[in-house]
């Protein structure tokens, strides 16, 4: 995805085949009223992790616009979803992330945050993604580098089981 501003993505419909497990103790997943971001990550049949999300008023920085740190959280979470597909036996921790904020993102609208298919190189996973506004403008792009660790370094067996949620995805297709 280029860093050019005001670019509209050429979109098509993608079929959703599943959802990444989520946890109520995670800031990115927990959707309580004022508790967290509340993202749900869909997996598509062509290897993307994708998320439709209604931006919250309580996440504003400048009035009416989503805080850049919250936008970074969207990407940390959605791009991390690729690591669950690629290294399900491990946990992946973010070690680096680069974000280009091309257009401001308003609160109170439905955006889409997308992680492209990625690949593993030993313990390293590099993922790229983009955020689309309702009119398909590419507002933000991101690149992240994750490193896998033993799952037991981040979650006990009990927590790992307790945190898995197998809810059906809320939608069957997503356009991006
Ligand atoms: C299917 C079941 C799924 C279950 C699902 C459960 C439900 C969901 C539950 C929960 C949702 C969670 C959602 C999370 C999403 C957000 C993720 C975050 O926010 S992560 C927090 C922020 N990140 C950190 O705090 C990392 C801090 N860094 C570290 O702790 C270490 O650096 C670590 C563990 C990543 C690596 O340390 P070492 O001791 O294991 O390994 P060494 O030997 O130091 O490094 C290995 C290789 O990586 C490079 N490396 C290490 N650190 C690097 C860095 N910072 N930058 C670049 N390279 C680095 C090294 O040069 C080395 O490279 P060479 O293999 O030799 O080529």
TrEMBL record:
What Enzyme Commission number(s) apply to this enzyme? 3.1.2.2
Q: Where in the cell is it found?
A: Cell projection, Ruffle membrane; Cytoplasm; Membrane
TM regions (residue ranges): none
Give the domain of life. Bacteria
Q: Which reaction does it catalyse?
A: dodecanoyl-CoA + H2O = dodecanoate + CoA + H(+); octanoyl-CoA + H2O = octanoate + CoA + H(+); (9Z)-octadecenoyl-CoA + H2O = (9Z)-octadecenoate + CoA + H(+); decanoyl-CoA + H2O = decanoate + CoA + H(+)
| InterPro entries attached to this UniProt entry | HotDog_dom_sf (IPR029069), THEM4/THEM5_acyl-CoA_thioest (IPR052365), Thioestr_dom (IPR006683)
Protein name (record): Acyl-coenzyme A thioesterase THEM4
Question: What is the native source organism of this protein?
Answer: Ruminococcus turbiniformis
